[in-house]
Amino acid sequence: MKKLAIITSHPIQYYAPWFRYLAALSDLSIRVFYLWDFGITQKADHGFQQAIQWDIPLLTGYDHEFVPNISSSPGTHHFWGLYNPTLNSRVRAYAPDVVLLMNYNYVSLYQFLASWHDTPILFRGDSHRLVPERGLKAWLRQQWIRQVFRRFDGVLYVGQANYDYFRAHGVPSDRLFFSPHAIDNERFSSEHATAHEQAQQWKQELGIPSHHRVILFAGKLIPKKRPNDLLEAFLEAKLPNTSLLLVGSGALEPELRSRAASHDHVFFAPFQNQSLMPRTYAIADVFVLPSYGGGETWGLAVNEAMCLAKPIIVSNHVGCASDLVEQGQNGWIFPAGDTGALKRCLQEALSDRNLLIQQGEQSLHKIQHYSYSQVTTGLRQALSQLGILSKPEDEHKLYIQQSYS
């Protein structure tokens, strides 16, 4: 059995179920090396501006260890936040056949890349260049990234925009393998019926009229997510029998509450932990992610909403837009920052309840192709090309045979 070492920043609710999936494979043994313990203990989240701890199991079902982090300010919000001097020796003691990095732009990971020569290294990332950067500083950064990517023997990409990003930074197409972003579809789907029952009660608790359709935003109330654009578009759209629900917390919350104070059909709900997310999406008739800039590298909330059969409205700066949202089929894509265009999307979406239902069904069908099975197929193809695993079995050749080249 071949051994895979996975190095990542901290336990993440989207990755832990994938690690359990990998651990169940008969020809691959994994160990996950965590560089920080955020998510499993109460710690401040800079985006949500509160201490959080995920309420679903993140460490069960797979082998893992925490590498001591001696940073004076641990976290992923700055370069020195992951400082783990014993990382190399810990990984070497495991004696892996291959290493997969899920991050690189931290001091510990640069040190690892500079000194690790024992086995091939893979990388899985999700950055994009949907918002072009210009100027000398941007050019120098691109040249540096090109050099970093030359260090990897294979790269897993999550979607179209991410593929284009890697190609723009010099990664050859034959070293790129499609390993799409996915969530625990099985958990969300299994809670579908219960979530809708809970959502009706929650709707009543929030004070949203029972006959109102609900436009949902769920996430950090921070500038890059642009919840203020959604609020402005909603107020201008003047939609009958419709409420806007903003779920989450963050730096923009006071401003949003102030702007919405004189409007009857704008509602707020606090941060919802993972066990409540199916209910959170179930309350919606349409989900909106209006992010602006290069920071929304994918938008896994879209995957979650689609698992609850919801139509989607996203800006064209959202990394998953071209992969998950088909205009007129399961949602709408609008130019980022254009509140007039977002208003028109809302008006079209809320003009026909049957249309919303049909588009939600299309979302549910489409998201089945973004599962941990498909994520794993891309990884296995990379390992096969490196000669670490035999060619993927037939059951691993599902959706990923497509190519963006």
Automatic annotation (TrEMBL):
Residue ranges of every copy of the Glycosyl transferase family domain listed in the record: 200-361
Gene Ontology molecular function: any one: glycosyltransferase activity
One Pfam family cited in the UniProt record for this chain: Glycos_transf_1
Enzyme Commission code: 2.4.-.-
Enzyme class at the top of the EC tree: transferase
InterPro entries: Glyco_trans_1 (IPR001296), Glyco_trans_4-like_N (IPR028098), Glycosyltransferase_grp1 (IPR050194)
Domain Glycosyltransferase subfamily 4-like N-terminal, residue spans: 86-177
Keywords tagged on the record: Glycosyltransferase, Transferase
Protein name as annotated: Glycosyltransferase family 4 protein
Organism: Leptolyngbya boryana CZ1
